[in-house]
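Help needed: design a sequence for this.
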């Protein structure tokens, strides 16, 4: 009979209480602001669902939402296949393993604001290597004035920064596959595609689920990098929900609507993450049958 050691919960209970306290207090404050209005001097008036109605009927909110969804879709469509491809071609043994792992981990060690600053300078047409090179090649590149160039710059920046995370997760899944699977496939004369389709991909289902969830949540909540590079411009073409939320709360000091928007933002992320998790888990379960 298997027994459970419940004393382990007492070891993590202080951490759970600290995390719960640090999360619940800000959440209660946001909920409080989302249903009230104020004219200053710490005097509040009940507003009910007024702020939520304003957010959900605002074209500004839905435009930012569309840009967020488009950005996340582009990021997932590029980084997941690219990360799998790189992981498949990384060495499994020898001196090349630590070298590749260190190179893959380097972009992840750079702070987000530094990444934005690097690409802001890198893409400048006067002193940036990328901007100068594009101009020398005859490409009219200017991420400050051209919306398409701004989007390309932000997408390429995110791919450079975060594809390594997908690579490392997929590589961890690949190295955990026993050699017996490959030996059996070699005996059966399986092609490279068959090995990937029936051995490697099913064994990477779990890590791919983690990679998709992490990259979706992070790309949908992206703020620092595009804010540093473009500031949400040119115009509002790169103004995502996070940037719009900060502008609403700090720039316009509309705390009630900003609080309601942050709650809607949180619920959307929670819902979409649950949908991703459910769909990918069901697909993985069907493949394992």
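Sure. Designed sequence:
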């Amino acid at each position: 009979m298997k027994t459970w050691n419940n004393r382990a919960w007492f070891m993590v209970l202080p951490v759970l209480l600290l995390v719960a306290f640090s999360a619940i207090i800000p959440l209660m404050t946001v909920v409080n602001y989302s249903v009230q209005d104020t004219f200053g001097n710490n005097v509040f008036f009940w507003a009910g669902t007024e702020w939520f109605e304003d957010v959900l009927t605002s074209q500004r909110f839905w435009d930012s939402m569309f840009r967020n969804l488009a950005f996340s879709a582009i990021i997932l469509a590029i980084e997941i296949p690219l990360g799998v491809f790189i992981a498949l071609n990384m060495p499994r043994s020898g001196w090349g393993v630590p070298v590749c792992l260190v190179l893959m981990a380097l972009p992840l060690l750079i702070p987000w604001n530094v990444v934005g600053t690097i690409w802001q300078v890198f893409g400048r047409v006067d002193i940036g290597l990328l901007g100068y090179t594009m101009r020398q090649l005859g490409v009219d590149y200017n991420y400050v004035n051209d919306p398409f160039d701004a989007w390309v710059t932000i997408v390429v920046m995110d791919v450079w920064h975060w594809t390594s995370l997908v690579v490392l997760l997929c590589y961890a899944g690949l190295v955990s596959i026993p050699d017996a699977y490959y030996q059996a496939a070699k005996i059966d004369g399986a092609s490279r595609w068959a090995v990937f389709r029936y051995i490697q991909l099913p064994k990477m289902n779990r890590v791919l689920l983690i990679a998709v969830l992490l990259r979706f949540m992070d790309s949908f909540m992206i703020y620092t990098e595009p804010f540093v590079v473009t500031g949400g411009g040119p115009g509002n073409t790169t103004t995502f929900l996070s940037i719009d939320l900060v502008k609403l709360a700090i720039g316009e000091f509309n705390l009630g609507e900003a609080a309601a928007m942050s709650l809607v933002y949180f619920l959307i992320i929670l819902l979409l993450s649950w949908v991703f998790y459910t769909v990918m888990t069901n697909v993985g379960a069907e493949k394992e049958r």
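Residues 255-288 form the longest helix (34 residues).
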